[in-house]
Amino acid sequence: MKAIVLTKPIEAVEMSLAEVAMPEVKPGWVLIKVRAFGINHSEILLRRFEISQSYIRKPIIPGIECVGEIVNPSDSRFRPGERVMAMMGGMGRSFDGSYAEYVLVPSSHVFIADSDLSWDELAAIPETYYTAYGSLTLSLQLSAADTLLIRGATSTVGLAAIQLAKAIGAKVIATTRSENRAEFLRRIGADDIVTEGPDFRRRFLDRHPAGATKVLELIGASTLPESLRLTAFHGIVCHTGLLGGVFALSNFDPIKEIPSGVYLTGFYSNFPKQAEITAMMDLIRKSGLHPVTAERFNLDHIAEAHTLAEQRRQIGKIVVTV
Length: 322
Fold this sequence. Notes:
Elements: E1 2-4, E2 17-19, E3 29-38, H1 41-48, E4 65-72, E5 83-87, E6 102-106, E7 110-112, H2 119-122, H3 126-139, E8 147-151, H4 156-168, E9 171-176, H5 182-187, E10 192-195, H6 200-207, E11 212-217, H7 224-228, E12 231-239, H8 254-257, E13 263-266, H9 274-286, E14 293-298, H10 302-311, E15 317-321
Parallel strand pairs: 8-9, 8-11, 9-10, 11-12, 12-13, 14-15
Antiparallel strand pairs: 1-2, 3-4, 3-6, 3-15, 4-5, 5-7
Helix pairs in contact: 3-4
């Protein structure tokens, strides 16, 4: 089969297809014919830097998610031909991932994808929409009565969160660093846009003096203390993203930094469950939601897909069809 194989750090333009052996099916694992996958920032980090780390098995086929059809279910509950999505749990790092025509994945990381969406639309969903869905439902307990602030709304998870939050019925306030993207955010459902930058807290509270009942923090540690102070009494802040490039809080005193009656939680997408995926897909289907996708490439043009993703100029998920 054809696949992208990494053995050392390389530039995007150096990515090319290789012929490799088909995976051999074994108990507890299922063979999937890959139809499409989304490009993720973690895959860029793997290609550029992380591949040199000793804990990465080499050679490795990258790719932390995919959608496709079951070819061989082995001893699992799946049936041949079933539409599925696979994600995370070491995919593309501990074992070969989705940048290939076929992928062998532990059955625990494979989920039925009950959907009439096209393969390229479906490929935008697994990791991105599950991260948004889990943050909103499992961590923030979002309801139609809530006002949700999304910091970092133009990210792929932010865009998914806008759509899913509106499907739930919440009011959505989105933030962006670029005024040029405000209209796009409104078009996919945001009720208000507040531009990130100097004096953000004052400008936000001038427009929303009661604060937000729920906050999805995708920028990360650099804005988390401020987000906590924009949250209404008995509101919840969910720390999910690290877009700001600050990975830890320095000298963080929870007693002083977390206002009384405000709750701080987080979301980690590494352990999905079929019931959660089913509920997410039901919400997407019932609301008529279509994932926000950017450009689409085929596997032969993976270098171009990675180049675009590295530049981070697109809005929406970059999808590769196989």
